[in-house]
Every structure is written in structure tokens, then in C-alpha cells.
Amino acid sequence: MKFLIGIILLTFAAIATAQPSLMIGGGGNYTIITDNDTGVESSLPRPGMNFKLGFENRFSPYFSFITGLALESRGEIDKNTNAAMLTIEENYKAFMVQLPLAAQLNIPVGNILCLNVFGGPEFGIALSAEKKSYMNNDPDPIDTVDFSEELRMFDFGFNVGIGIEINTGKFGAIFIRPGVYFGLLDYLDEKTAKKNGIDPTGKHQSLYVTLGYKINKRPKSPVMDEMISRTDEKDTSEQNTSTAEQYNSYRSQDSENSTTSSDYSGENDSSSDYGSSPDEY
User: Fold this and answer.
1) How many angstroms separate the most distant Cα atoms in the chain?
2) DSSP letters along 38-87, please?
3) From residue 197, how far is each of 61, 143, 150 by CA, in Å?
4) Of 275 and 71, which is predicted with more confidence?
5) I want to staple 46 with a disulfide (CB 3.0 to 4.6 A). Which of 39, 64, 75, 125 is the partner?
6) Of residues 57 and 262, more confidently modeled
């Protein structure tokens, strides 16, 4: 309980710091448990889902820190054939709340795309776990067992991935974030598992992809600020050049008008001189 309270406080602290962006997304994953069960003929990855609420805090145009909360389903599918040549499938499923703490490198690609490289530790809390058994691909389970007590309550691992952001304007961006999670702790509680005659070794591993939208808390992100600043500088330079050209054109026309006026004045002076000659004549 104290651990859960700590996660909530840390999440709210992340929201309050600097100017984070809100990240909302969901997607799918394939998970497996890296155990060495001698009684299992084959283990297959289990398809699952993920829903994530994150906060990205950018400290510079190219570096940011991400935290938040994620709800994920994990597990695996084990298959065996008994003495009667019947196929028994055991589907393990667990729901986890994850807290990622990831450092991220942001690499702008043009004015629209941004490449994200991220990685860091990730903490987890097990909410529930069950095992459903099926026979000969029958869609209805023949047995359902709750093994929440055997599951380790806390999980810890490392998360890495590469993502892409597509800027949609000053308010946010669409993101696609594929990644891999490597669990570092055994997924079962050692004492409870041994008491029930189960091998406690085995760690969660997950391959996932998340699609979502990032909403900027402020109008523009630092990378967009830099891009817009460059555009503004270019527009200002072009405007100054245009103004200078207009001014030079005006000066040129004014100079031509002055020359024409001077020539016309000279002609009038000549006529005046010619008009005085009759007296002399």
C-alpha cells in the first residue's frame, strides 16, 4: 500500500514540475515468462493490451523525461499433451500497473517528424492473476484458478524503445512507440510458490507498441519553438530585404524626378534669356 501511495505521489510530482505534455495512448503487446518448466512441452507468447497515461517533461529541445501510469496485461500460454493424447492449454493472464521512468532523446527530422529514443527503469504492481485451462482447443475453459497470491506483488525491470512523433501543430503530436520490457525479478512469490510445489523462477518479458496523442500543456514544444523561431527569423529577414528594396526603388525614382525637374528648369532659363535678346537686337 505504501508503494502504491508513493507511485501516486511521484506521478503528481511529475505533473507539477516544469511544463509537461500529457500523453494518452493504447495498443497491444506480446508477453512471455522466461521460466524453465520441465513439465511444459511448449510456451507461446500471450497477446495482450496496454493503456498508458504519461507525462513528458522537456528540459531542452533534445532531451526529456517521461513518467506516468500504464495498465498492461501479461502472461503466456503453455501447452501439454497428456497420456490420453489430449492437448491441454494453460492460459496465464495477469493485470499489472506499471510506472515507467524513462529518459528520452529527441531527434527532429524536418519540420514535422521527430525520432524518439527512450529507456529507463520501470516498476510494477500486480493487480490480479488467473490461469484458465482448455482442452483440445475448446473455447470454454475446463478450469479457472486464481493465482494472485502466488504472484509477486511488485515487479521491476528495464524498458527501451524507439518512437516517432508526427507534429499536428502547436497543440500536440501523434506518437507511435514500439518497445521492449525486460523483467529483472521472478514473477512468482518464492515462499508461496515453493509451498505449492511450483518453480518460482521466471521473469516477465514484453514486446509492445503504443499509439496515441501528446497534448502540449503550453502552446508549443521546445523543438517547435526552435523551428518557429527559425521561420520567424527567415520571414523577418525577407521582410527587411523587401523593405530595403522598396526604399532603394523609391530613392531611385525620386532621383530621376529631381533630374527631370532640373532639366526642365534649365530649359525655362534658356527661354528667358532668349526672350531678352530683342532689346539687344
Assistant:
1) 147
2) TT-SEEEEEEEEEEEEEEEEEEETTEEEEEEEEEEEEEEEEEEE-TTS-E
3) 53, 19, 11
4) 71
5) 75
6) 57
- Annotate 35-50 with DSSP letters as a single string: ---TT-SEEEEEEEEE
Residues 6+ apart with CB under 8 A from 4: 125
Q: Residue 281: which pLDDT band, with cuts at 50, 70 and 90? A: very low
**CA 33 from chain center: how many Å?**
27
pLDDT the model gives residue 278: 42
- Residue 224 grid coordinates: 517547435
The DSSP letter of residue 188 is B
3-state helix, strand, coil in the chain (%, to 5): 30, 50, 20
Cβ–Cβ < 8 Å for 55, 18: no
Place of cell 528594396: 245
Residues 36, 23 contacting (CB under 8 angstroms): no
pLDDT digits (tens, 9 = 90+) for 191-250: 777 776 666 678 889 999 999 999 987 544 444 455 545 545 555 555 666 555 665 665
* Alpha helices (runs of H) in the chain, residue ranges in sequence order: 2-16, 190-195, 222-275, 277-280
Give the 3-state secondary structure of residue 197. coil
